[in-house]
Each structure stands twice: as C-alpha cells, then as structure tokens.
Amino acid sequence: MEKIIEVKDLTLTYPGGTKPTLDTLNFDINRGEILTVIGKSGCGKSTLLNTIAGYLHPSSGEVLLNGETIVEPSWKIGVVFQNNALYPWLNVAENIGFGLNMRHFNKAEINVRVDKLLEQIQLADKKDDYIFSLSGGMKQRVAIARALANQPQLVMFDESFGALDEFTRNDIHKVVLDLWKSLHLTFLVVTHDIDEAIKLGNRIAIMTPDKSSPMKIIDNPYFNIDLEDIDSEYIKYKNRILKQIV
Ligand SMILES: Nc1ncnc2c1ncn2[C@@H]1O[C@H](COP(=O)(O)OP(=O)(O)OP(=O)(O)O)[C@@H](O)[C@H]1O
C-alpha cells in the first residue's frame, strides 16, 4: 500500500491547555482509500483534520504528505466543512472555480474543470444560480466540487453531512462514493455517526479514550453496505465500535 499521509507521534496541546488534545497519534492514510474517523464529541477529530490540513501546527511530531512535512495549508489537500463555507456573492460555477481563479488558471481550463464537476455532482442546470437558492444538499455538493476542482491529493470531510436530513445524506453518500470511484481519490471523512463511518470507510479509525492506544484502525467489511443488507452481524460490528469510543 502506498502511503499518502503519514501521521507520526502527532501531539497537539492548545495554547493554555493543560493536557494534549492529540496525544502521540501514529497512523497512515493509503492512496486511494477512504478512511473514516469516528470518536466521541470533543475527542479531537476536527483538531486532527485541521492539523493534517496545515491550519494547526503540531506541538510535537509531524504529518507528512507524500513524504514531505506539512507546514501550511495548500491546494494539495481539500476540505469540505459542515457549514460548506460557500461565497454567497458568487454563483455555483464561480464558487467551484474559485480556487483555480486564485491560482491564476486560464479561463478555458477553469471552465472545463467546472463543467465536468457540475456533471458529476448532477448540478449542471444550476451553474448560474446563486448559493442562497440551493437546498442544503445541493450546497454540500457544490462545496465538494469546489474542493475537488483543485485536483487535490487528499480530500477531507469535517462532519460535512451532519446537518442534512437522512434522505439527503443518503444521496450525498452516493455522490461521494461515485466521485471517489470514478476519480480514484483519497478521502478522510470525520464523523460522529457510526453508520456513516461504516458506510463510507474502507477502513475506520476509532479515536478512543485509551491513552495507550488513542487511535485504532480497523478493516471494514461493510463498506458501502445497502440498508437492506443490515443484519445482526452488522449490529454486533457497530456495537464493537461503539464500545471502543466510550
Ligand atoms: N481553538 C481551540 N482552543 C482551545 N481548545 C480547543 C480549540 N478548539 C478545540 N478545542 C478543544 O479541543 C478538544 C477537541 O475539540 P475538537 O473540536 O477537535 O473535537 P471533535 O472530536 O471534533 O468534537 P465534535 O465531534 O464535537 O466536533 C475539545 O475539548 C475542544 O474544546
């Protein structure tokens, strides 16, 4: 397995904090996988994601992208937040192309990338619409397309689907999995929803309160499971994850 991200002895204590929020974490993200990260509220999931993104700096240890220490945010890592953070004064196409514009890509290249993504997120007909006119699910699809427009090496999702109703969330899960498959992407998905972690993750990283093993990564036999295939073995698997979180 080729590693895209290496987390080495990662420790982070917030200024003024008495104990580390992240304490000596060690794990890798493999190229082409979806790693979901699950853990109790406040265990440090967003802190971990923000550190990998380069928004926060480790107190000690490091995170490497393709063998190079991450020291600042870059287009190589895309992030989709829960509140989507889209620009209301730009239309859908302009939001998706925003990062490419900032990087001074030429207009023709931007249009090609944006149009392709609009097809993939099934919003080609909303290209010229402003953000306020979109539903919550559509906004998240635009946020995903905006993150993908830069063709990043890793895309991270920070509770990106938590505010959506169940039907919309199921639709978005399908969009995410289709994009991952067709574009051969690598995703890290932070969630507090165990079913979502199981649905979306090739592997599941469990952030535990166990100081000697703060991060346990397990294989997931139920990746992309259909709701109708949920059986008693699935429930047992889910409960085993739950027990390690609390
Ligand atoms: N900027 C900050 N300064 C100080 N402490 C912080 C800061 N951001 C987060 N924390 C603390 O760090 C801990 C981990 O927070 P974090 O948001 O990473 O957890 P989380 O697992 O993502 O939680 P949730 O699932 O509720 O979003 C919490 O105790 C939080 O209060």
UniProtKB/TrEMBL annotation:
Signal peptide: none annotated. It comes from the Bacteria. SMART domains: AAA (SM00382). GO terms for molecular function: ATP binding; ATP hydrolysis activity. Keywords: ATP-binding, Nucleotide-binding, Transport. The keyword Methyltransferase does not apply. The keyword NADP does not apply. Transmembrane segments: none annotated. This is ABC transporter domain-containing protein.
